[in-house]
Amino acid sequence: MNQKFTKFINDSKNFLGKHSPEILTGIGIVGMGCSVVTAVRATPKAMTLVEQKKQELDVNHLTPKETFLAVWKPYIPSVVTFVLSAGCIIGASTINYKRNAALGAAYALSERTLIRYRDKVIETLGEKKEHQIRDKVAQDDIDKNQPSPNQIIVTSKGNTLCKDMISGRYFRSDIETIKQTINKLNRRLTYDHYISLNEFYGELGLDDIKNGDLMGWNLDNGLIEPSFNACITENDEPCIVFDVDISPKYDFDKLI
Question: Is residue 107 part of a domain?
Answer without folding.
Answer: no
